[in-house]
Amino acid sequence: MLKTTQIQKPRYVLIVDDQEINRDILGAILEDDYQLLFAADGKEAMELLRVHTDIISLVMLDLMMPVMNGFEVLEAMHSDEVLQEIPVIVLTADKNAELKALQLGAADFITKPFDLHEVILARVERIVELSEGKNLISAAEHDKITALYNRSFFWEYANSLYAYHTEIHFDALVLNIEQFHSINAVHGREFGDKVLAALGQEVQAFLQQVKGIGGRFEADHFYIYCEACEDYAKVLARFQAVMDEKFKDVNVRLRMGVMRRQENMEPLSLFDHANTACNKVSGNYAQPLMIFNEEMRRREILDRKLLNDLNAAIEENQLKVYYQPKYDIQCNPPRLSSAEALIRWIHPELGFISPGEFIPLFESNGMIRLVDRFVWENAAKQIVAWRKKYGITIPVSVNVSRSDIFDFTLVDRLEALIRDNDIRHGDLKLEITESAYAEDVQKMIDLITRLEEMGFDIEMDDFGSGYSSLNMLSSMPVDVLKMDMQFIRNIESNETDRKLVTLVLEIAKHLKLTVVAEGVENEKQLHILQNAGCNLVQGFYFSRPLPPEAFEELIRREIETKRG
After folding, report:
1. Binning pLDDT at 50, 70 and 90, where does residue 232 land?
2. Is the dihedral angle over the CA atoms 151, 156, 161, 163 positive or is it negative?
């Protein structure tokens, strides 16, 4: 234990208790190591705190006192930016009072009647040392922006509540801000911090009314461990109302996942499920709340299996690359121009697995890089195989995921792919999803500029589906826009959609960009796009994605048409 003789600056402890005998007992325990101040009630304590703010290292606070009780002192200290930095050890005989005191910022508890004086002294010393910064890892208890608990303290207190307050049913809530990275990119990090602070403040207000604790881990990840509520839709609506009121000119949308308390399920597992539920409603503005259920549990089991089986799928060729043709529709008849490489998984136990089942899963944890590399290598080899067999080159577009963009080996890997297969850079076109452009704008510009200088064609995939859209085109060096199929779906019956497509095509023409329309399914859609000046289309009207051997029939047909 660190002794007073080792500290150059004396440390003061304020002991607040209406019982003189308790003040005497604590004074006797601490007097050899600390300078002591005493108060008989909360009012007197607040007066001493304001006079001696700069020297008090710790407050030892009784909760049940006349004039001004301990809870009122905690509330007053919590609302004062200076006093809230002084740690408080609560003195109580009421175990149920600990939770409320914790919510108000108490650092520790000592139970009455006092015993084990060495333990009391050790706990005081620990809290003082934390406050003084001698244990830097544990001392940073609160997130600076939101004033909620940080990760380590949140788990410490959540596990304590789970272990020692079994009479209370605690649920796990995970709260996220939709497209928070885009809010930062468009409005600046300072504005983003204001959004986080406002949400953190409202979470604290909620926890003043409901037993529980809140934490912010990173970015926009808010965790709330609270007494079970009947209607979580009302809870989310409360938080959303604050965002709507404080940020009227910006669309700040929230989503929330909930895992209700389960017998013998610890907080970490509860929050894993709540986080899964929260991710399930990502982008779903109509239904931003999800409560974890049995179907989601089955989905989690499936996800774990897919994650575990991916390496075997690559090694055993369970993954198959299909190719969907793109047709130049400004020719008569339309001409096969290129193809898009799409992944399929034929699992030995589960059979055919839709890409919608596994692509988002692998994107969320970075394993999509393994899938992308598999597709790149197969596409490059297929380009060579078709060239040797038919004497023509069919360029193929491949996906570059967000996680690929932050892979420092990306450029070298792609260059090696071109060199090893003896193909041109323009034969392998790189599709980057529009949402990735808002992640790190300057990094994206630098990367795309370098790839273009190497000779690659860059396609902005899913154009119009996210935040970046038009404002990114002026700075992003892209060659091709792929209009999201949502634009195309109703163009034959919806005039607004038709005008939007026309507008995109006019902008692309002005910027000298090629446009590919995805999801073309009927002749009327095709004619509208032809007349509007669209360059290329893909969709079921021409062909579904095909395995290489079936795609070759389209190549042969194209060759025969040219000869004819």
Report:
1. very high
2. positive
CA–CA gap between residue 328 and residue 534 (Å, rounded): 9
Whole-structure pTM value = 0.60
Which of 157, 128, 123, 124 lies closest to 142, judged by CA?
157
Domain 4-138 of CATH type 3.60.21.10: no
DSSP 4-65: GGG-SS--EEEEE-S-HHHHHHHHHHHTTTSEEEEESSHHHHHHHHHHSTTTEEEEEEESS-
Chain region(s) in the chain for CATH 3.20.20.450: 308-558
Alpha-carbon distance of 433 to 354, in angstroms, equals 19
| Confidence category of residue 437, pLDDT binned at 50, 70, 90 | low
- Joined tokens for residue 272: 């894993």
Q: Is the peptide bond before 545 cis (omega within 30 degrees of 0)?
A: no
Find, among 125, 115, 75, 67, the residue nearest to 91 by Cα: 115
User: Looking at the domain that runs over 308-558, which CATH code has it been given?
Assistant: 3.20.20.450
* Dihedral of alpha carbons 551, 553, 554, 560, sign: positive
Q: Which of 104, 109, 134, 107 is nearest to 120 (CA)?
A: 109
413 Cβ partners below 8 Å, 6+ apart?
373, 376, 407
CA 152 from centroid of its chain's CA atoms:
19
Q: Are 337 and 536 in contact (CB under 8 A)?
A: yes
- Please report which confidence band the pLDDT of residue 367 belongs to, taking 50, 70 and 90 as the band edges: very high
Tokens 């290598």, located at residue: 377
Query: Please, how many CA atoms are within 13 Å of residue 231, restricted to the half-sphere of its CB?
Result: 4
Rounded Cα distance, 336 and 181, in Å:
39
